Amino acid sequence: MHEIEAKIKVAALEPIRDKLKTLGADFVQSVQQVDTYFMDAHKLLRKNDCGLRIRQQIADGLTSANVTFKGPRTDSLFKSRPEYETGIEHVAMMEKIFEALGYYKRLTFKKKRAIWLLDHCEVCLDELTEVGCFVEVEGPNETAISGVLEKLDLHNEPHITDSYALMIARRQKQE
Hints:
Blueprint: E1 2-10, H1 14-22, E2 26-40, H2 44-47, E3 51-59, E4 62-70, E5 79-87, H3 91-100, E6 103-118, E7 121-128, E8 132-138, H4 142-151, H5 164-174
Antiparallel strand pairs: 1-5, 1-8, 2-3, 2-6, 3-4, 4-5, 6-7, 7-8
């Protein structure tokens, strides 16, 4: 698996939501996500530009969870990196396994996400209390992502390459 995405900070999500409706995008669902990131004692994950996360997601009253490993970024117009993900049944047990392997919880945060589909891309409207509103466009290639960004009038906006975890950790250090 390989993740290719563009992330844009926006002042508000409503104009983007309206534009998606006008474009005939398919609304998938609204979810609440709780992301917990892990780190090792020697901070090798950070040094190697990798991430290890457990995500719990609540949608339509159902809770699911997965574990994700994100590899180092590759050279690309957008944020691009290997990504390996699988569902997990018992979050607490997975956390114990990580701890037994030498990982510790580094950061946990919540996010509201509305997921849409447009032109073979997943468009996520994200709201995080700590850092604001963002639009993430993830797709099969840079051309598809660029096309969606243009349709949403976001193609001239600066791309955010930092993860939400990094943005929140930086903010917490400032407080």
